[in-house]
Amino acid sequence: MKSKLLEAIILRENNQSKEALNILEKLLIDEPLNGTIYYQSAWCCDNLSLEKEAINYYQKAIKLGLNQTDLKEAYLGLGSTYQAIGEYILAKETFLKGIDCFPENNAYRVFLAMVYYNLGEYQKGMELLLQLLAMTSSDSDIQLYQKAITYYSTRLEDKW
């Protein structure tokens, strides 16, 4: 099983997601409770623009359990797939769950900011991005104004 799973991963990494998915679907017949196979299947479906199928695989993978690295990526994949099909509330909930489970992963915040944009919550999205920029940028000019950027990030509409 491991060699077939590895073969499927290598195929996916080499832009042969359809072939990889064929292998993974066969593996699921023998191992229907293996979260890793579902996760890899979701990734292949995403690559093939099969978003609705990807969602089902992501959900099953998360439910069955994954190692921490794969779980971190699965939440991001699921959230961005929801976003791609216009399910912005589900995307928001998924990214917030990802932030709750993996607070150190700032990619969730970037994707969440995009979802805020999709939801018309422009101020929330901009605030989140500005705070993230101030917190993570190594650019010396941004660091020089870090406190001001953070301060104004929550006061974008204020006038003095």
From TrEMBL:
Domain Tetratrico peptide repeat group: 37-156
Lineage: Bacteria, Bacillati, Bacillota, Bacilli, Lactobacillales
TPR repeats: 72-105
Claim: Cytoplasm is one of the keywords in the record: no
Record-given protein name: Tetratricopeptide repeat protein
Stored PROSITE patterns: TPR (PS50005)
Species, as recorded: Carnobacterium divergens
Keywords in alphabetical order: TPR repeat
InterPro entries, A to Z: TPR-like_helical_dom_sf (IPR011990), TPR_5 (IPR041656), TPR_rpt (IPR019734)
A Pfam family assignment: TPR_5
Acyltransferase recorded as keyword: no
